[in-house]
Amino acid sequence: MKIEEAKLSRGKFVKWLGVASAFAAIGLRFMAKKNVQAPKKIKFLTQDGQLVEIDEKLISGIKRNVTDKELQSWVKK
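The structure assignment produced for this chain is given below.
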């Protein structure tokens, strides 16, 4: 009798373990979809001397080098 009871309880344990792991896998799948990354922010220093964070999406994708004349006109003494 004890051997049959041990097999029965072991079988129940394995079944419950399988059910619990299935629910855990489903739960992790839904949690992974909710994980949304925050937009990347870039820090800039204004002319006033304040530090400002701006979303990367708001900055245009066109990049060019600044000329010496433009740089000198931006710097205020």
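Interim note for the steering committee: Residues 41-74 form one domain. The mean pLDDT is 78.
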